[in-house]
Design a protein that fits this description.
By secondary structure, this protein is an alpha+beta fold. It is about 30% helix and about 25% strand.
Length: about 800
């Protein structure tokens, strides 16, 4: 039988009240401790603990990679007593560049893929912090944030990180708590920093004003956001819905077949499941007109190819794909985060204001910390200054003292020093007594006093404090800012046919051996000098022309016999890497086997304005309207009348008011106004352009621009950049002036190419090697100078061609 005392300790409680209270405690634990990010640093506790744990372990951008298992074990044992798999999943997410807009962890190994492949086990992968992750931890050791005991009260962990990065917007967040959820999309750093700085300078800015800086979410996987209404609603109320579409472009194969190429997917869409879904729809005949679906993705990027059956309307097919597959998805935005430990739905301005308030608090605490340190150092330096000024007496006191304690007391009494100053004097090395060291003490004291004044002013002035924050944000933007990946399109209502976004500009290459191909500008940039492919044992080949053009533009090709051929740029065979030659230009355009390509010109449309100035080998020139050549017949048309024994060697597109430069093999250069060349019809021959000496011939004609430089190259590998001011304007029919005085030494002149300082030149050698050199690195010399010789050009190796390119 229970005693009276035990009966008195029993407290009757309604079970409904107990369940309600317990569930509320559980839900708040989940909300605050697991599922929702803090609005200040944009991190959930698990991510914050991982980053801080790695920082404490010294696993930073300049250190070597460490096994993920080591980090998981350390963080779990010190700060996060939960499952190791949950910890590893959080770590993996911060290392995935298709999940995070700005990755906080630099991973080495298999961290999963957009196909939904799982990451390798933590014992195989290795990680370290990224530079932008260090920005979230900047100044954490300077008492900038509060620390609390960890779960077992043996260590301290930060309640928030002193981030310079507005991470809640940059990388977004996704989490489901008890009775609430958050889904914040990632954003572009440049836009967010610009908006933050503007709000600091003008706190009265509204959501509408901030939208001038932040145009919308920016997903790491790119894609298109359709319409801005959902974005505005989310930024205004904290909730909204946006539509995200894949990037789909249309290509035509060399065989004339059509295919759709998906190069960017909506955020968090699984590529492997997408392919399965499309295949299933084709099998069930819900999607017709698709011949094949294949994944051609590689390390260069995503490429999902859909072959379209002949006669199918690609616009209708694309619309069906958007409707039936995740190539178009809705993304529900819920901007829910913790504000002072309480969950809160926020608008765009709220987020930025909380971040700015956090930065002000962090910078204030950092400044106070640095001020105290500076004052302590100044105090010590004042004591050292007294010591070096009275060194003889101090040495006498120390030598006459029985022990250190009595010496310290004597110094304090004699010179009115503090105990710290006296101890610093006792600890001072004899090397500090030299004149140079004494000067250093005074110099350090002066600079420390100035720093104390500067820090004091920052603490006294909110304007200076904000100036510090703005300066740090500007440096962050300078270091990590980049272009948007996601394009925001205007609202589309009742769309029946999808107009694909315009394809990127194409780079066209024509080689000396007669091969032509095109490649996207972005791919060309990655290839750099891997421009053409030579099989072992094949005859040497080199680029004759390299130019960029819109994909819907036209290419005009002129031959040595004076004929013109035209082709749409998107009809030129497209290649994907430098290992593909392209197609024989003679076969593609119908050029006679007895003729050779002289030069090519790109125009945007058939009715383009401008003129073409031609030059023959024997110095005849001609100027004719470009419209005469933009619609030639099959088999080509006559472009210029060529005399027996002569040939067309060069030509350039002009505005009608340019000067032109004619360069010859023996180094003569003539500068003249194109207006001195009367315009003539398509079939007309040339007129006297430059007077040639015996054995000389024209090699190149180029249009002058405002850049003011010409790069000359010779057969023996000499290069130089000469100001256009070195070449006086002369009349038609004159010899011009010399650009090389020692032509026998430098060899025949290959070309005189007009270039801009921001461009590059492609240098081709007879050993089949190509080099890309920025124009600014080519030395500026006088007209008569030899130039600088390329070391590799010697013996049987010759310089064959140079081509100026604006594609950086």
């Amino acid at each position: 039988m229970a005693s009276r005392d035990s009966e008195e300790r029993i407290i009757p409680v309604e079970i409904s009240d107990e369940m309600q209270a317990s569930y509320l405690d559980y839900s708040m634990s989940v909300i605050v401790g697991r599922a929702l990010p803090d609005a200040r640093d944009g991190l959930k506790p698990v991510h914050r603990r991982i980053l801080y744990g790695m920082y404490e372990m010294g696993i930073r951008p300049d250190s070597s990679y460490k096994k993920s298992a080591r980090i998981v074990g350390d963080v779990m044992g010190k700060f996060h007593p939960h499952g190791d798999l949950a910890l590893y999943d959080a770590l993996v997410r911060m290392a995935q560049d298709f999940t995070m807009r700005y990755s906080l962890i630099d991973g080495q190994g298999n961290f999963g893929s957009v196909d939904g492949d799982p990451p390798a086990a933590m014992r195989y992968t290795e990680v370290r912090l990224t530079p932008i992750a260090m920005a979230t931890l900047a100044d954490i050791e300077k008492e900038t944030v509060d620390f609390i005991p960890n779960f077992d009260n043996t260590m301290k962990e930060p309640t928030v990180l002193p981030t310079v990065v507005p991470n809640l917007l940059l990388n977004g967040s996704d989490g489901i708590a008890v009775g609430m959820a958050t889904k914040i999309p990632p954003h572009n750093l440049t836009e967010v920093v610009d908006a933050t700085i503007s709000l600091i300078k003008n706190p009265d800015l509204g959501i509408k004003d901030l939208l001038k800086y932040i145009s919308g979410p920016d997903f790491p996987t790119g894609g298109f956001i359709i319409g801005a209404d959902g974005i505005k609603e989310a930024y205004k109320t904290g909730k909204g819905k946006i539509m995200i579409r894949a990037k789909v472009s249309e290509e035509t194969t060399p065989m004339g077949k059509t295919r759709l190429v998906i190069s960017e997917l909506p955020y968090q869409v699984n590529k492997a499941k997408l392919i399965e879904q499309i295949a299933e729809l084709v099998r069930n005949k819900r999607l017709e007109g698709i011949a094949d679906v294949r994944d051609e993705s590689d390390r260069e990027g995503l490429r999902l190819v859909i072959d379209v059956k002949r006669g199918e309307d690609t616009n209708i097919l694309i619309q069906k794909l958007f409707k039936l597959t995740p190539l178009e998805i809705s993304f529900g935005i819920i901007i829910l985060a913790l504000d002072k430990g309480r969950p809160r739905i926020m608008n765009l301005k709220n987020i930025l204001e909380i971040f700015i308030e956090h930065r002000r608090e962090v910078v204030t605490k950092r400044t106070k910390f640095l001020l105290v340190k500076a004052q302590e150092r100044a105090h010590i330096l004042e004591g050292l200054k007294i010591a070096v000024d009275n060194i003889d007496e101090i040495v006498k006191i120390i030598r006459g003292s029985e022990n250190v304690d009595k010496a310290r007391v004597s110094l304090i009494s004699r010179f009115a020093l503090s105990e710290k100053q006296a101890q610093a004097i006792l600890d001072m090395r004899l090397s500090r007594l030299t004149a140079l060291e004494r000067a250093k003490i005074e110099e350090e004291l002066d600079s420390t006093i100035k720093e104390i004044k500067r820090l004091g002013k920052i603490l006294e002035s909110p304007e200076l404090l904000d100036s510090e924050i703005v300066s740090e944000l500007g440096a962050l933007k300078e270091k990590f800012g980049d272009e948007r990946k996601t394009v925001i399109l205007s609202d589309i209502e009742d769309v029946e046919i999808y107009e694909p976004p315009p394809e990127e500009d194409q780079v066209i290459t024509i080689t000396n051996n007669g091969y032509i191909k095109r490649i996207g500008v972005s791919t060309f940039k990655r290839l750099r000098t891997r421009i053409i492919h030579i099989e072992k044992g094949e005859e040497a080949d080199w680029p004759l022309e390299i130019m960029s053009s819109p994909s819907n533009g036209y290419l005009l090709v002129f031959t040595q016999k004076g004929r013109c051929y035209s082709i749409r740029v998107n009809a030129i065979p497209e290649v994907e890497n430098s290992g593909q030659k392209g197609k024989g230009i003679g076969t593609l355009l119908g050029i006679s086997s007895e003729d050779m390509v002289s030069f090519a010109i790109s125009v945007d449309k058939p009715d383009s304005d401008g003129f073409i100035v031609f030059s023959t080998e024997k110095g005849l020139i001609k100027r004719s309207d470009v419209k005469n050549y933009t619609n030639p017949k099959k088999g080509g048309i006559g472009a210029i009348g060529i005399e027996e024994g002569d040939r067309l060697v060069s030509g350039t597109l002009t505005t009608g008011e340019n000067d032109i430069i004619i360069t010859t093999k023996l180094g003569q250069v003539l500068r003249l106004s194109e207006q001195n060349i009367r315009a003539s019809g398509r079939t007309a021959g040339g007129i006297k352009g430059i007077k040639l000496s015996e054995g000389d011939r024209v090699v190149y004609v180029s249009r002058l621009t405002d850049t003011g430089f010409v790069v000359f190259a010779t057969e023996n590998g000499y290069l130089k950049r000469v100001s256009i001011d070195e070449f006086p304007k002369k009349g038609r029919g004159s010899m011009g002036v010399k650009c090389f005085s020692e032509i026998k030494m430098v060899g025949s002149v290959i070309k005189g190419e007009v270039v801009s300082p921001e461009s590059s030149i492609i240098i081709s050698l007879s050993n089949s090697k190509n080099y890309q050199v920025p124009v600014e690195k080519i030395k500026i010399l006088k007209r008569s100078a030899l130039g600088v010789r390329i070391k590799e050009v010697s013996g049987n190796i010759k310089l064959l061609n140079i081509i100026g390119i604006e594609i950086q």
